[in-house]
Specification:
Helices cover 37% and strands 24% of the residues. The strands form two sheets. A six-stranded mixed beta sheet has the order 6-7-8-3-9-10, with helices on both faces. Helix 3 runs parallel beside helix 6. The structure holds adenosine-5'-triphosphate and magnesium ion. Magnesium ion (MG) binds next to helix 1. One of its GO terms (biological process) is L-amino acid transport.
Length: 237
């Protein structure tokens, strides 16, 4: 009877009245686990994340969180249930300060969120130093920290990240992955899309290779890294 903490099961659907982009796509992650989605450009990775977050009407399939069917819930209602989502683009308010961005993240909370803000600053100390600066003046890596921090302000049980290391240097990427591991160790589940497939699969408990809206390969990160076909087709040999 124990199913994963989050499961997007056999999801089929697309945008509006357009053709289906996802074809029976299944993604799941357990508590405190890191699940990584990789695959070619246009494979539907971001679409699958949006489907899990409720930004897409599924024609078939279901999304369950903690055993509860949330398929019909709005994104905002899913946030209230414990989902945090950092989209691939436009994930910070550039004209607002770092601290204001974090405050925006807490919009659903009625309680005192200063403790959570202190935790975010502990995780990303540079954000504390720059808290009065407009987020638009930060480096790419620092902006991604703001975006992740903002999502953490809702105290999610599941953190969904769409290409958190896009456009950052290898050093900044390693650093960000270390922070993501740290978040997972607190019991938060991570569902993450990554372009840096090899490095991301190294830290993944579970990996998904998506191709044309379908699950092509699913295994532990380690097993996918060792699979000759996955290596040849998706990891550059
Ligand atoms: N808002 C949208 N409206 C209509 N079609 C869309 C929309 N967003 C994406 N698509 C289409 O859905 C398909 C999958 O796109 P998606 O962005 O999910 O791919 P991806 O795997 O995230 O790619 P990338 O690696 O480039 O981020 C593409 O054919 C794309 O053109
Ligand atoms: Mg994408």
């Amino acid at each position: 009877m124990s199913e994963p903490f989050l499961i997007g099961e056999a999801m089929t659907g697309g945008y509006g009245r357009g053709a289906d982009i996802l074809h029976g796509c299944t993604l799941s992650v357990d508590r405190g686990e890191i699940a990584v989605i990789v695959g070619p450009n246009g494979a539907g990775k971001s679409t699958a994340m949006k489907a899990v977050f409720g930004m897409l009407d599924l024609r078939e399939g279901a999304v369950r969180l903690g055993g509860e069917d949330i398929t019909a819930l709005s994104p905002q209602a899913r946030v209230a249930k414990g989902m945090g989502f950092v989209p691939q683009t436009s994930n910070v308010f550039t004209s607002m300060s770092v601290e204001e961005n974090l405050e925006m993240g807490a919009f659903l909370r009625r309680d005192d969120f200063r403790g959570t803000m202190a935790q975010v600053y502990d995780l990303f100390p540079v954000l504390k130093d720059k808290r009065r600066q407009p987020a638009g003046e930060l480096s790419g890596g620092q902006r991604q920290q703001v975006a992740v921090g903002r999502a953490l302000m809702t105290q999610p049980k599941l953190l969904m990240l769409d290409e958190p290391t896009a456009g950052v240097s290898p050093i900044v990427m390693d650093e960000l992955f270390d922070r993501i591991i740290e978040v997972a160790r607190t019991g938060i589940s991570i569902l993450m899309v990554e372009q840096n497939a090899r490095q991301a699969l190294e830290i993944a408990d579970k990996g998904y290779v998506l191709v044309q809206g379908r699950n092509a390969f699913t295994d532990t990160g380690k097993a996918l890294l060792a699979d000759p076909e996955v290596r040849r087709s998706f990891l550059g040999g």
